[in-house]
Amino acid sequence: MSLLLASPELELVFSALLLTLVAGLVVALLAARSVLTCILLMSAFSLTMALWLMTMDAPDVAFTEASVGAGVSTMILLGAALSSTDVIPSLRPGRLWFPAVACLAAFIGMALIVPDLPVFGDPGSPPSAYVGRLYLEQTPHDIGAPNVVTAVLASYRGFDTLGETTVIFAAGVGVLLLLGGQVRSPDAAPEDVSLRASAGSPVLSVAARLLIPIICLYAFYVLAHGEFGAGGGFQAGVILAAALILHALVFGVRETMKALPVGVVRACAALGVLGYAAVGFLAILNGGRFLDYDALLSPVFEAGLPSSHLAGGHHHWGQRIGILAIETGVMLAVASTMTAIFYAFTGRVSRSDAAGAS
Amino acid sequence: MTLALVLTPYVYGLGFFMMAAGLLIALTSRHLIKRLIGLGVFQTSAGVFYILLSKVSGGTAAIRLEADSPAAEALASRLDAAYIAAHGVDGVVYSNPLPHVLILTAIVVGAATLAVGLAIIVRIRETYGTVDFEEISALEARALRDVREDEA
Question: Would you kindly state where each structural domain of chain A is located, as residue ranges?
Fold first, then answer.
């Protein structure tokens, strides 16, 4: 965003305008009367939000919002809700007033704190002045990776990120427990025509054939490039899952299950989290603390390696290898969990539709 | 700075409005999937508040630049030297990366929890044959009445 507009103040105006657009989409969502409209509006909301995040100097978050909100969330929602495109009836007015008053009260309560909040863009505000600044100053010395967001995510707060990866894995397990997920072999998988966008369209299947390998390659680029620019394991995992789900939507979920069996996907989800934790224990075995990447390589071995970029003369190969290893674990866990969730939904939804029709 | 003073209540107000609107959708919609979408809007708007706090005027994304690289110089040319000296790190002003990290993971966790919510909705549809909140309430009330009559 930095070089788009001449004046820093104009930048703030521009981002405020984009935020207005995002809020407008929320108003449209309030009024939307069909499930399909709601899902597509949420997708548009996420995409506009990603644009706004770019103006707020948060490319990593924008990347995640675009790939998760506008990509995978939309696909999962469509997969679960394609058969229920009915019109939503409006609520009885008697049921409306209490939630409306509660939300209005919440809004007024939050608005009352605005005078105490830091001025928009204030560089000396408490959130920006202390710990955030410390991370910016120390990252080249401690981690040696240019992207401070990745450094904080994967190294400084690596333990938090392990917890978050576990939450995603647990959510995947929760979905499988709720939906049963007995579909193990591709033959048992449902052949649901409503989920196949390409039914009779050669254009879609040719385009998908071209796009899917490029999307997969891009996911690995995002993974490997996370230290230097926007990106990382979460985004890469979601992009990889999007490629697999695109395959399922175009060629049918049966074909995808043949290429990537359900068991393999579930095993990979567990392997991702385990691999992440294993890096932590490896550091303990080498005499360091949990997830202390500096302990991954012995100092004697590391001294023989060339000094890394932006390192200020320090050796950071342990950090580099550790970050790449745990990001790979995150990518594996996120991609597999999202794919497993999608498999579970397509299996269950078409079965319940068949039960409802009979 | 005067422009920023005017914008401050506006942007925070928009963030809080989206939060309240998401809550309203989650509380009042009859279709359960729309409720879930409202919850997603509510969650994303909480992220908006964090990101609003992280913006530094004239700053750039928190990816460290070499102090004398062309990109760093182009950035510095728009700001006065005193501002950079006071708030920059090695000659470049960056936005605060910490809220970005928190919200980045929250978004992915949000998608995973959305999937759990959807799974629950799929089970509700199998059990009740509908995802309409009012119809489910009516079915529940009827079942409760039947149980009470059996007891009586």
Answer: 147-358
| B116 chain-A contacts, CB cut-off 8 A | 171, 174-175, 178
Burial call B1-22: b when 16+ CB within 10 Å, e when fewer: eebbeebbeebbbbbbbbbbbb
In the predicted model, is pLDDT for residue A203 greater than 80?
yes
Residue A33's pLDDT band, with cuts at 50, 70 and 90, is: confident
Q: How many other C-beta atoms lie within 10 A of the C-beta of residue A184?
A: 14
CB-CB under 8 Å, A124 with B119: no
Q: How far apart are CA B3 and CA A356, in angstroms?
A: 58
pLDDT by residue (tens digit) across A205-219? 899 899 999 999 999
Q: Is A357 exposed, middle or buried (0-12, 13-18, 19+ CB in 10 A)?
A: exposed
Task: Tell whether B18 and B48 lie within a shared domain.
Answer: yes
Both tokens assigned to A86: 């009915």
- Average pLDDT of chain A is 84
* pLDDT one-digit tens code per residue, A4-18: 556 788 888 999 999
Mean pLDDT of A50-78: 91
A34: β partners: A87
**The total number of structural domains that make up chain B:** 2
B125 vs A contacts (CB less than 8 Å): 84, 352, 356
Beta bridge partners of B31: B132
ipTM: 0.93
Together in a domain, B111 and B86: no
